[in-house]
Design goal:
The chain is mainly α. The chain has a domain of 87 residues. It has five helices and two strands; from the N terminus they run βαααααβ. Strands 1-2 form a two-stranded antiparallel ribbon. The termini are close together. The mean pLDDT is 80.
């Protein structure tokens, strides 16, 4: 079963014109900030990769449903066809610990956080329609 997520933000009070280019510029700026973080200096350490793998595996196993993992996989354009939850988790982790994918991973994490923050906000949540 394929599920679609659509997000609609309706702001009838503020008449500020914000276009998609402005939003993407803010996201790209946030991603660049993540890339320049001094905590990311030891990325080439194999032991660090194993720790990341284990941490992500535990996080995805206990804190995400298969449907949520499928949405993340689709965002990364990773095939989910006929895969069990454990296989999806393995593919996601391999993708996310690859340094070449740092930008898209940072962007996905940031965007998911934005949606979560809006959804948890008492005022803005009224204007966020998520249909699954």
């Amino acid at each position: 079963m394929t599920e679609k997520i659509s997000i609609n933000v309706i702001d009838t009070i503020c008449d500020t014109n914000i276009n998609m280019d402005d939003i993407m510029a803010m996201v790209n700026e946030k991603c660049e900030t993540c890339e320049n973080d001094p905590e990311n200096d030891d990325e080439n350490d194999p032991e660090n990769d194993m720790e990341k793998y284990m941490a992500l595996e535990i996080d995805y196993t206990f804190n995400y449903t298969k449907v949520q993992l499928e949405h993340i996989s689709k965002y990364y354009e990773i095939s989910i066809r006929k895969k069990r939850k454990e296989e999806i988790i393995q593919d996601l982790i391999i993708f996310e610990i690859n340094p070449q994918n740092l930008e898209i991973v940072s962007r996905r994490i940031y965007m998911w956080k934005c949606v979560s923050d809006i959804n948890n906000d008492s005022y803005l949540s009224k204007y966020l329609n998520i249909t699954t």
